[in-house]
């Protein structure tokens, strides 16, 4: 396993780095607010250290204002609460009703959800009208997300990406948090002839179909089937509802693994496991009855969780552990991955490059720190989940792996210390195939830049560890729900 896991790290030991991260984070957020002009579009990624926009799909504004909300969560500095709250009120309504994207959980749970969570926790004053505003936004967002539905030949379905009804993105497994929150708030999607459509059922079916079609399990699905390998996109014939092939939009190829997509899977499956543990078993069983049928041969196999509660859990644990293992096996010794495991110039790197710390300044292929920020949180959540289920050995391994990645990210050369750079975590990659990432003079590949999602997820990772170190309630996306 190339990632060299540090078994001695704890959240408490990372506190000095976390404190420094939020000190720098404050400067970055204020710098963005000073220079950002709403008419220029949502901040997406940096060019020469300054956040710029990219008109493709509106999926990062929730990370923009959500970062300010997390900064308030960490520090209590009300300047950032005002930025996050006002930004949400003024600019996020269109994202709630956005019918053209699969990113509702990214945009709206990061803003309305975080604000509602802080109110539930007593961190901001209780205001019934404000609470109703946040809850309504989350309900509508979950229903709009769930309406992006493609029906498959077996009667199940999935939430399709912005590419169209044929397209199942692995990313969406984490953005499905919007359905989870809306369901638990008592909401239902209303369809034709007043059909009541369960958001829980759509969430469950999407999760199981993501595992089925976007994740490989080393069972000979095709000639390139390696356990834990992840396809960015699964393509379907929408007329028949039959799976056709894997594909990749932001990765190198359909039969390589784009590591940010891999990280979305690690984090998304782990978070869904946490969430489904809060839902009555009979509700989960009912919602998954149809979608678990293709997995029947699996359900008698030994699983990582010592006491799986539902058939859904068996599948999701397998998907989470497979992708986590693949991430750790294909990242460098410090837990930072290259942007794609099949990138065309990896063979030009030293033969043992995975056994050493990643070199973000290499001249062959970029690393992706944003994938590491996402995966680290997923690894810690998965480890804690397995440990709580009785699998102490694997639980500890995944937790320590996540802490190892966090330790790397919260230090140089990834933590951005320059006051002239608006990014928080350096060496992120956006869309390598499209050539959207800035390449500095004298460099051959992109490096030294930041992304809104990488910075947000680093803050979210830091908040999770900060709360653990303080002995506070665990940060979860469903922390905004009534207990």
Describe the overall structure:
The protein is mainly α. 45% of the residues lie in helices and 6% in strands. It has 16 helices and 9 strands. It has helices spanning 15-35, 61-75, 78-91, 93-96, 104-107, 109-120, 128-146, 172-175, 177-184, 199-214, 259-276, 281-288, 311-329, 369-388, 392-409, 452-470; strands at residues 45-47, 50-52, 149-151, 157-159, 167-169, 189-190, 196-197, 233-237, 242-247. Strands 5-8-9 form a 3-stranded antiparallel sheet, covered by helices on one side. It has a two-stranded antiparallel ribbon with strand order 1-2. A two-stranded antiparallel sheet has the order 3-4. A hairpin with a 2-residue loop joins strand 1 and strand 2. It starts with 14 loop residues before the first helix and ends in a 13-residue tail after the last helix. The mean pLDDT is 96.
Specify the helix fraction band: 40-55%
The CATH class assignment is Mainly Alpha
Tally of DSSP helical segments: 16
* Widest sheet: strand ordering: 5-8-9
CATH fold description: Glycosyltransferase
How many domain modules?
1
The assigned structural class equals mainly alpha
Q: N-to-C SSE series?
A: HEEHHHHHHEEEHHEEHEEHHHHHH
Q: What fraction of the residues are assigned to beta strands by DSSP?
A: 5-15%
Question: How would you describe the oligomerization state of the chains in this entry?
Answer: single chain
Largest sheet: 3 strands, antiparallel
Unreliable stretches, pLDDT < 50, 5 or more residues? none
Give the integer mean of the pLDDT values. Answer: 96
């Amino acid at each position: 396993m190339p990632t060299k896991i540090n078994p001695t790290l704890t959240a408490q030991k990372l506190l000095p780095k976390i404190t420094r991260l939020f000190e720098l984070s404050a400067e970055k957020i204020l710098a963005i607010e000073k220079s950002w002009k709403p008419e220029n579009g949502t901040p997406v990624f940096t060019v020469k250290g300054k956040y710029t926009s990219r008109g493709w799909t509106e999926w990062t504004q929730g990370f923009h204002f959500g970062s300010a909300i997390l900064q308030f969560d960490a520090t209590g500095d009300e300047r950032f609460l005002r930025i996050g709250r006002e930004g949400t009120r003024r600019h996020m309504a269109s994202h709630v009703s956005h019918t053209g994207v699969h990113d509702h959980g990214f945009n709206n749970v990061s803003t309305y959800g975080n604000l509602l969570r802080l109110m539930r926790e007593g961190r901001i004053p209780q205001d019934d009208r404000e609470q109703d505003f946040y809850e309504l936004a989350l309900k509508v967002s979950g229903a709009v997300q769930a309406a992006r539905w493609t029906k498959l030949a077996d009667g199940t379905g999935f939430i399709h990406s912005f590419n169209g009804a044929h397209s199942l993105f692995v990313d969406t497994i984490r953005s499905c948090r919007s359905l989870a929150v809306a369901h638990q708030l008592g909401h239902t999607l209303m369809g034709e002839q007043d059909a009541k459509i369960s958001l829980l059922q759509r969430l469950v079916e999407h999760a199981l179909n993501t595992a089925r079609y976007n994740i490989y399990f080393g069972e000979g699905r095709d000639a390139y089937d390696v356990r834990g390998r992840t396809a960015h996109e699964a393509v379907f014939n929408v007329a028949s509802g039959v799976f056709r092939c894997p594909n990749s939009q932001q990765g190198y190829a359909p039969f390589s693994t784009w590591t940010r997509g891999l990280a979305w899977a690690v984090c998304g499956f782990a978070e869904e496991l946490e969430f489904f543990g809060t839902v009555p078993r009979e509700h989960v069983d009912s919602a998954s009855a149809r979608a678990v049928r293709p997995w029947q041969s699996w359900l008698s196999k030994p699983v990582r969780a010592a006491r799986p509660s539902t058939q859904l859990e068996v599948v999701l644990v397998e998907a989470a552990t497979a992708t986590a293992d693949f991430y750790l096996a294909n990242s460098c010794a410090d837990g930072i991955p290259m942007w794609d495991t099949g990138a065309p110039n990896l063979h030009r790197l030293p033969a043992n490059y995975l056994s050493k710390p990643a070199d973000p300044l290499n001249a062959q292929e970029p690393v992706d720190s944003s994938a590491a920020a996402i995966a680290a949180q997923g690894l810690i959540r998965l480890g804690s989940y397995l440990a709580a289920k009785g699998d102490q050995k694997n639980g500890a391994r995944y937790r320590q792996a996540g802490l190892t990645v966090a330790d790397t990210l919260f230090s140089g050369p990834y933590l951005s210390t320059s006051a002239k750079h608006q990014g928080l975590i350096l060496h992120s990659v956006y869309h390598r195939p499209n050539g959207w990432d800035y390449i500095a003079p004298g460099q051959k590949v992109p490096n030294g830049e930041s992304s809104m999602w990488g910075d947000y997820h680093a803050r979210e990772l830091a908040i999770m560890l900060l709360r653990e170190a303080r002995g506070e309630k665990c940060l979860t996306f469903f922390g905004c729900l009534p207990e």
